[in-house]
What we know:
By secondary structure, this protein is of the alpha/beta class. 42% of the residues lie in helices and 24% in strands. The chain has eight helices and 13 strands. The protein has a five-stranded parallel beta sheet, with helices on both faces. The radius of gyration is 22 Å and the shape is elongated.
Amino acid sequence: MKRILIIEDDEILRGELARLLQNAGYDAVQMKDFQDAAAQMTAARADLILLDITLPGLNGETLLQEFRRSSDTPVIMLTSRTGELDEMLSMSYGADDYITKPYHPTILLLRISAVLKRAAKAVSAVQMYHDAEVSTVRGSVTRGQQEQILTKNEMIIFQQLLERRGEIVTRDDLMTALWDNEEYVNDNALSVNISRLRSKLAELGLPDAIETRKKQGYVLK
């Protein structure tokens, strides 16, 4: 069951939203105390967040911006404002959708379903390497609380090694994978990219992840 966190200061509207979501098969969680809201958003471990723009002592757009520094959880902004500027700001700060009040319940549920489907596709682009998450969408490797952002070339190389983990991947294989990339990569540049990738993995506590096989290629252990 998907969990949806409702951040809405209007108690009546919040209750109506919770009932609507529960009747649609969702686990609806209500935030009633807005102290340290960003931390509560993270702790809720929700699959999606409905976030009102206007909250007691808070600006929902600013809250979203803060939340986006540490989380990719889908967020739909709810607002009674109709100005295009608010919608543009919300989307630029990382909102996945923007819905103005009053909204039709069926339309809201359809928008929620669409955002969750998009999020599911993004999650499918996450692979595991030991206990580290490799996200091709973000271009990152995350282990515990640490995250390393990879360049496009570093991610292509790491994907090639990950897909053939335990096997030898030759330099020619890697050069071929990088061939269609917009940045030209020669043999020396490949070595630099592999060195940088190793350094980033080492910073995550994976110092011996890539083994060099002389005159053969590389193996991801």
